[in-house]
Amino acid sequence: MTYLADKKISIVIPSHNEEKNISYLIEQLRETLTPTGYAYELIFVDDGSRDNTLNELKINAELHTNVFYVELSRNFGKDYALKAGIAMAHGDAVITMDADLQHPPQLILKMLKLWENGYDIVYTYREGENPHGKGYQKVTSKLFYKGLNMLSDIKMENGTADFRLIDEKVVKQLKLIDEYEIFFRGIIKWAGYRQIGIPYVPSKRHTGEASYSFPKLVKLAVGSIVAFSARPLYIVSLIGLFFSTLAILYIPYVLVSYFLGYAVSGWASIIATIAFFGGLQLLVMSVIGVYVGKIFMQSKHRPHYIIRSSNVVIVNNDFIRV
């Protein structure tokens, strides 16, 4: 395999409570990338960790001149941490990956080869089920991607990961996106360019536990669907039209019953009907409310993240240690 040594690779790694994984991950990446001849930099984004992740990053930044850290003022979420890291990357290609070592560093070599062969984006997707995932995570993952593919305008493989390589020209376009609740896995698919996906088998976490809870997964699913399609609005509109039509067809029955003297029986059916349509109205209003809420938050133009500290300063598109 032949590499071009005059190219630089930026690796962006969001980190949340990963104190015991940082040093080992850096060692694995150095063993993988140093023989390639590429210049490379490791950009860690501390996303509001409550352990000693930041201290580990500072120590490694002192030991290695190509290790940089960005400390966010609080936990803004993984996608915003990715955005912060990508904003500071200026390599010929940017690789994003998790800090828990479930994304095997050795797969980067295959990504680089495909990139050198002309692909602008090389993304990864999980091959089969995650052998190390919890039961509810396996179920929710399948439901998430099926729902996303059905209700949104993008199509993604089951288990698509945040482990990917992005060419510099794509990165420049990503930096221009100013979107509330950005979902990078969807944005990458939406962006187009020449893409290829490669399967991988997740490794076991080196240490620690996954921080994504079930409520966070539900929020991610809803936010991802409404971010890429207005199809849910069309669906609830069709539901409303369907039941409105049924209500119109119910009028002849009421008139015939009235003129023929049939008594309207019971109140239970009336209460059930009111409760059903009341619930349906609340459902429709909640879907509309999600979209209105996103418009409201987008209109505030708040920064997507706040940097508390960093050893990075960008001067003339170069990294300067501070």
UniProtKB/TrEMBL annotation:
What species is given as this protein's source? Mucilaginibacter angelicae
Which InterPro entries did the record assign? Glyco_trans_2-like, Glycosyltransferase_2, Nucleotide-diphossugar_trans
Which named protein is this? Glycosyltransferase family 2 protein
Q: What class of enzyme is it?
A: transferase
Q: Which residues form the Glycosyltransferase 2-like domain?
A: 10-173
Q: Name one GO molecular function term.
A: glycosyltransferase activity
User: So what EC number does this one have?
Assistant: 2.4.-.-
Q: SUPFAM superfamilies given for it?
A: Nucleotide-diphospho-sugar transferases
Q: Which residues cross the membrane?
A: 233-255, 267-292
Entry coiled-coil feature ranges: none
Q: Which UniProt keywords apply?
A: Glycosyltransferase, Membrane, Transferase, Transmembrane, Transmembrane helix
- Taken from the record, one Pfam family name reads Glycos_transf_2
In terms of PANTHER family, this protein maps to: GLYCOSYLTRANSFERASE CSBB-RELATED, UNDECAPRENYL-PHOSPHATE 4-DEOXY-4-FORMAMIDO-L-ARABINOSE TRANSFERASE-RELATED
